[in-house]
Amino acid sequence: MAKVVIAYHSGFGHTDVMAQRVAEGVKAAGVEVSLRKVDVLDDALWAELAAADGIIFGTPTYMANVSAPFKAFMDASSKPWFGQLWKDKLAGGFTNSGGLSGDKLGTLQALVHFAAQHSMIWVSQGVWPSAYSNDGKGSNRLSSWLGAMAQSGNSPAGVDNPNAEDQASARLFGERFGVAVMRWSR
Amino acid sequence: MAKVVIAYHSGFGHTDVMAQRVAEGVKAAGVEVSLRKVDVLDDALWAELAAADGIIFGTPTYMANVSAPFKAFMDASSKPWFGQLWKDKLAGGFTNSGGLSGDKLGTLQALVHFAAQHSMIWVSQGVWPSAYSNDGKGSNRLSSWLGAMAQSGNSPAGVDNPNAEDQASARLFGERFGVAVMRWSR
Amino acid sequence: MAKVVIAYHSGFGHTDVMAQRVAEGVKAAGVEVSLRKVDVLDDALWAELAAADGIIFGTPTYMANVSAPFKAFMDASSKPWFGQLWKDKLAGGFTNSGGLSGDKLGTLQALVHFAAQHSMIWVSQGVWPSAYSNDGKGSNRLSSWLGAMAQSGNSPAGVDNPNAEDQASARLFGERFGVAVMRWSR
Amino acid sequence: MAKVVIAYHSGFGHTDVMAQRVAEGVKAAGVEVSLRKVDVLDDALWAELAAADGIIFGTPTYMANVSAPFKAFMDASSKPWFGQLWKDKLAGGFTNSGGLSGDKLGTLQALVHFAAQHSMIWVSQGVWPSAYSNDGKGSNRLSSWLGAMAQSGNSPAGVDNPNAEDQASARLFGERFGVAVMRWSR
Q: Which domain does C63 fall in, by range?
């Protein structure tokens, strides 16, 4: 059975909510999924990542970039990088911040570059933005393309924080990613 | 007297509205301003740009990047580039698209890179985002930092399209740019 | 049989040489390949792109970005974009310029964003850089990850211009892309 | 007297050499300069940064981005960011890695975005690349525009590692930055 690992960092819980939604989407596609926080970098994490068919990276946007704990994970990946252990795996990403645009694209770019250094293959968001449709579904409210974006208010994370439509788009992204992993792995 | 040229392309009029707001801001700072569409690349344009103290670049975001007519202007600037005629001038930028985030950052990055190739000095947006304040002013609604961003609906350009708060933020950016040009030129 | 289209613009012939090398690599993987210059935007081009299993984009780097003719192609793709006709196709890219680094990454980023807007899936370069190995092969001399980079001298395009090692890396990228298309399409 | 702080991280000493060269350039322009490693984030560092007329950021390129220790510094700057204490200061950047191109532009972009979030004003490299001249000076060998780039071999840092021409370009960038700070501060 195909397997996806969601490797992420969450500072205050909002990115955690996004990770849950992405995981639900992956599962809905019939793919096994594992949620792994990258705060602890132990052997089990690296073993799980090496065995995965696809890895989805998630991080809050801090200072227009991945968070420092996520960057520590990126730098620590130099060992699998040197052996190119993640080569040809599928990759994707999501991020969250307080602003509507707010340099979230800078974070997704950093994730794309990171995946490319690992010779991975990047799966884009693939959800048509509500700005260009009249279907009332409100999907991809922020018009993101590279990966899933979410915007959160300053209040604690919860059902409506990050924004509910952004959560729904994250789920759609997870499902798309799961379908792609099955196609790539068959 | 210090002088600023706003070199821009507008496809359907929305970026034009943004250019007007930026120009008002520059004027409010006591700096002369000239609005120049880059659809026509004649000697007068290049002469005006070479004489300016600062240049603000404006373009819609099409396909996550500057528009094709704006790119044609960029490529045509290889002559002043080869002579580095714009070296040490101040530069800034603005863009507009239909989505809230929608890869507008990709366009602003393209403008920053373009200005750097001309050895210019980049003035950031400098307007505190309303997402992080409770002042009710609604400035910098989209939380943009590199330059001024606007979001427009599909209806024709007008008083409220681009979004009125985005227009106000563009004016604030123009004023900031004008103040910077005066400081840099004195 | 799987099919790849290389959609590219070449200003002075150097990017054309790169396109040839990439095409040879795709063919070596047993995949049909079509070289299409995007200077002419006719119905045949759009039909071929819609029918392809994968599209590789190529452009010189002018002003830290794709060339103006390539940008015109990007903007003209708004029709297949609106129908998301290229969704789930594989995508990749290559670029060439006079400098060793010279903002070529800015161009590859623009291609990645473009592909993401079309909901495509991005295949990275995947060739280990010679800077990190002692195998004397000289592959991926410029240490590019997102796509294939080449550097050319001012002399006319030829056997050694772009740089011969960059040409060899382009061929390796084409082969990798072809293998990926076969795996994705089976 | 105008003052510049160089805030940087060096993993193995190569970026340290670059910082020395940039500092020499700033001094040559008649501007006071302070070299501060960001490994230790104490009150003295933040006080010095708040008092500076310009800040130059330096970091190795790890995984196509700033190093994790540098990212920790970026995230820790959220306090001066919230008060916008660095607003209108001049900013610049430099980076080093093992490859000729090697995603160094990604790192410089991250620094530009970071400076923009602090509402700073970005000074580009401003050194004409040797690829486009026949003056034999070998300056800006890598054709970088956004900031100073260097390439190092795997051997320990020294007189010729990073590459001597890259070191010379870093010095030229420091001098340009110093001149800009004097002009901006008078």
A: 3-184
The CATH number that applies at residue C60 is: 3.40.50.360
Chain B interface test: which of D81, D82, D121, D123 (most B C-beta within 10 Å): D121
Q: With a cut of 50, which residues of chain C have pLDDT below it?
A: none
Chain A residues bordering chain B (beta-carbon distance below 8 Å)? 64, 97-106, 129, 131-132, 141-146, 149
Partners of residue D68 in chain A, C-beta under 8 Å: 68, 71-72, 74-75
ipTM summary value: 0.97
Least CB-CB distance to C124: which of A120, A146, A180? Answer: A120
- Mean pLDDT throughout D150-168? 94
Cross-chain residue pair D125–B145, CB shorter than 8 Å? no
User: Would the CB atoms of B129 and A102 count as touching at under 8 Å?
Assistant: yes
| Residues from chain B contacting residue D106 (CB–CB below 8 Å) | none
Q: Taking 80 as the threshold, does the pLDDT of residue A41 lie above it? A: yes
Separation CA C180–CA C2 (nearest Å): 10
Nearest CA to A22 out of A162, A180, A178 is that of A178
pTM tops 0.95: yes
Q: C100 vs D131: CB contact, 8 Å cut-off?
A: yes
R_g (Cα) of chain C, nearest Å: 15
Query: Cα separation of D26 and D33, whole Å?
Result: 7
Which residues in chain C are closer than 8 Å to D146, comparing Cβ atoms? 103
Q: With CA atoms as reference, report the closest residue to D126 among B86, C98, B182, B47.
A: B86
Residue A6 near residue A33, CB atoms below 8 Å: yes
Q: Residue A103 and residue B106: Cβ atoms within 8 Å?
A: no
Which positions in chain C touch B71 (Cβ < 8 Å)? 65-68, 71-72
Measured CA to CA, the distance from residue D71 to residue C40 in angstroms comes to 46
Q: What is the pLDDT of residue D186?
A: 86
| Interchain pair A102, B144: CB under 8 A | yes
Taking CA A137 as the corner, what is the angle to CA A136 and CA A143, rounded to the nearest 5 degrees? Answer: 105
Residue D23: per-residue pLDDT: 98
Given B100, B103, B145, which is nearest A141 (Cβ)? B100
Give me the helices (H) in B42-154, please.
43-51, 68-76, 78-82, 104-117
* Closest C-alpha to D159, from D28, D4, D13, D38: D13
- What mean pLDDT do residues A156-175 have? 96
Helix (H) or strand (E) holding C69: helix C68-76
pLDDT band, very low/low/confident/very high, at D52 (cuts 50, 70, 90): very high
Instruction: Note the pLDDT tens digit of each residue in D77-101.
Output: 999 999 999 999 999 999 999 999 9
> Tell me, what's the pLDDT at D133?
82
List chains touching A (3+ CB pairs under 8 A): B, C, D
In the predicted structure, residue B138 carries a pLDDT above the cut 90: no
Task: Tell me how many domains chain D contains.
Answer: 1
What spatial distance separates the first Cα and last Cα of chain B, rounded to whole Å? Answer: 9
